[in-house]
Input
Amino acid sequence: MAMGMFEFGTVLLLTLGLGLLLSGVFTAYFGRGKSRKVGMALTIIGVLIWIGTYMGHYEGFLGDTGFMDIVMTGLFYVGSFIIGALIALGIFLVAIMKT
Output
C-alpha cells in the first residue's frame, strides 16, 4: 500500500493529534495544579489538530483519498507500532529479568 505525500501528511497529523490527545487526557487526569492545566491544553490541541485535519481534507486540500481510509490507515500504523513496542518491551524485560 503506497502512500502519497497527502496521505503521509494526514497520517502524521492524525497520529500527532492522537498522541497529544491521549497524553493530555492522562496528564489532566493524574496531574495536579499546573500539570493538569498542561494536560487540558494538550487535549484541546490534539482535538483541534483532528478537527483541522478533517476540515482541511473536507475542503479538498489534502488530496482525493477518502478521509476515513486515511484514518483507518493511521490507526493501523499506530496499532502495529504499539504491538511492536510491546513485544520489544516484553523481550527487554525478559532479558533483564534473566540476568
Remarks:
- The mean pLDDT is 78.
